[in-house]
Design brief:
By secondary structure, the protein is an alpha/beta fold. The chain has one domain: Alpha/Beta hydrolase fold, catalytic domain (Rossmann fold, 3-Layer(aba) Sandwich). It has nine helices and eight strands. Strands 1-2-4-3-5-6-7-8 form an eight-stranded mixed β-sheet, sandwiched between helices. The two termini are 23 Å apart. 42% of the residues are buried.
Length: 255
């Protein structure tokens, strides 16, 4: 069992585990540490060091609640850790942040693993907020993110229900979601030469399969992998298959 350390220093809150090649995990807008449990448990065993910073969704000023600021935040985090090239693994908003980081700071980006990434199109939860007091409605919306409703545990639903009923947090979430929509990267993607694995759920309703095809077409050094019976968070619904794809891709690319 790899030791996990929760760290608060340098203005950053993050989890770290293992030693070896550095991987930085970038969580989604409504995501957290638990979303990557299977990944964090496995990769430190095979020669990688995991870092998972808490993105400042609720702590950054409103003017800084945008994708570009978050990409710069991650680059500052990399410099703080005194790392050179890192592998960025991002889901949803985290994938978008990783892509922009690769565009702005290619010398710091060794590879990208994107799953259900925003950056081209996202069917967001934004229009549900007027009904945020309705627990069953939020539960249904949360379940819809996954292929199997069982993945949306009570703990996950409770956490999202708490967030969407906090007015200050909702303002930040809406600001971040609008920033992601505005910051469409279609014109930028052909210029991003970083090796990229696209891992997509065949049943993703948030960033549907056609989005994955578009990413694959526009990113010149990308490979697309599909996971069947899977929604917007493959690393949660099928962690072993997700890890297997990543491990084999790392080996093939010598990453």
């Amino acid at each position: 069992m790899q030791e996990r350390i929760h760290v608060e220093k340098g203005g950053y809150k993050y989890l770290t585990s293992g030693t070896g090649k550095p991987i930085i995990i970038l969580h989604g807008l409504m995501g957290g540490l638990g979303n990557f449990e299977g990944f964090i448990s496995y990769f430190p065993k095979i020669g990688y060091q995991i870092f998972m910073p808490e993105l400042p969704i609720y702590t950054a000023s409103l003017i800084n609640t945008n994708v570009k600021y978050f990409a710069k935040f991650i680059n500052n985090f990399i410099k703080f850790l005194k790392l050179d090239e890192v592998i960025l693994v991002g889901n949803s908003l985290g994938g978008h942040v990783g892509l922009l980081h690769a565009k702005l700071f290619p010398q710091f980006t060794k590879a990208l693993v994107l799953t259900g990434s925003s950056g081209l199109y996202e069917n967001a939860m934004g229009d549900t907020y007027p009904k945020r007091g309705d627990y069953e409605f939020i539960k249904k919306k949360t379940q819809d993110v996954f292929y199997s409703a069982k993945t949306a545990t009570k703990e996950i639903v409770d956490e999202i229900f708490e967030v969407v009923n906090d007015r200050k947090k909702v303002i930040k979430i809406l600001a971040m979601a609008k920033s992601a929509i505005r910051h469409n990267m279609a014109k930028d993607l052909p210029k991003i030469k970083v090796s990229t694995a696209l891992i997509w759920g065949k049943n993703d309703n948030v960033t549907p399969p056609e989005v994955a095809y578009e990413f694959n077409k526009l990113l010149p050094n990308s490979k697309l992998f599909w996971i069947k019976n899977c929604g917007h968070a493959p690393m949660m619904e099928h962690p072993k298959e997700f890890n297997n794809i990543v491990e084999k891709w790392f080996a093939k690319k010598n990453i």
